[in-house]
Automatic annotation (TrEMBL):
A Pfam family matched in the record: TrkA_N
RCK N-terminal domain: residues covered: 10-96
Annotated GO biological process: potassium ion transport
Positions of the Saccharopine dehydrogenase-like C-terminal domain: 126-370
Alphabetically ordered keywords of this record: Oxidoreductase
Cross-referenced InterPro entries: AASS, NAD(P)-bd_dom_sf, RCK_N, Sacchrp_dh-like_C
SUPFAM superfamilies registered for this protein in UniProt: Glyceraldehyde-3-phosphate dehydrogenase-like, C-terminal domain, NAD(P)-binding Rossmann-fold domains
Name of the protein: Amino acid dehydrogenase
Amino acid sequence: MEGLAAKMVICLVGYGRIGRITARILAEKGFPPIVYDSSRYRVELARRDGFESHLADSTNPHVASHIASSCEAILTALPGRIAERVITLLVEYKAPLIVDVSFVRDPLAFHSRALENRIKLFVDAGFAPGLSNMLVAHGARGLDSAVEAIVYVGGISAEAEREPLGLVASWSTMDLLEEYSRPARAKLRGRLVELDPIDDAVEVELPGLGRFDAMPTDGLRTLLTSYPSIETLVEYTLRYPGHVNVLKTLKRLGLLDNKPHVIAGCSVAPRELLARLLEEILPKQDDRIVLHVTVKGIANNKRVERVYTIDVKQRDLDIDYPVLAYATSIVHAWTAMQALRGWGHPGVNTPEELAPALRDLARELSSRGIQLRRRECIES
């Protein structure tokens, strides 16, 4: 791989919270990326970190065309709405390999064009969606039938009493608010449904992890297509108790709305204003990630339940950035490494397709202090 690293041109579009850590991990592995970002501050930061970097708006077709033709592998780490435009351009200009960690609305929408252009496009290459998809796929392997898969995942503050909202700004606050506002696609008892993240929230007690507000969110994505036979398939985002009540108040006040209002001659959308306020108010450090995935099914005429769990705080690790951003970047960089080793096929590559390599990813996470625990219960 060392010889390959010296020859290949690896590029990273976006040097925000996730992109910066992804770049560090790639550099550790001998693949220092060339960085492109539209922020002068982040470009200078990348240069201070030792990376070749360029001030460039990748939503500009000329810029996207240059990146597509200059780079042999492109990793994208952008807010969802921007990523959608950038990936569309990179696919159109036939970038050979793209590994995206952003939350685009419909990753499978890129498949036909990527397939036509012989592009390997890895989507949802993050913690959740991403690792969570792999765990569902791994849990379903070897079962005669998988009947239920539930994903509980949360990036929260290390302590429940921390205000405001029990959150740390570990990813895009606009993407956070859009997650609260977007209907969650799920499957209940064989029927595809859309759930409201706030109105359909529930309270859960997860053994060894604690009590949480659990909000149905739209993170299943490609799993709904990959596993049509699973009768119940839901993702819940975890928050500390009381969080949903705060969101209900914000919703009633209209602060989650995206319709602009004219104030002092300026057009302002309440959601954009709230996102900016959260960006300024929320702490940037000391978070906790919780991932609890259960898969239930039948094997050899016996009921089987497989459970996968991660629970770690930033303060438990020797890192100076949120553990959610760290875990997301680990999966992002690891997925890129799998692609560089030849994994994948033309068109969209879903994270669940990487489940056969889960043991390797678990070792990578463990080497960085993040332990994936697994247990299996079989009906006696």
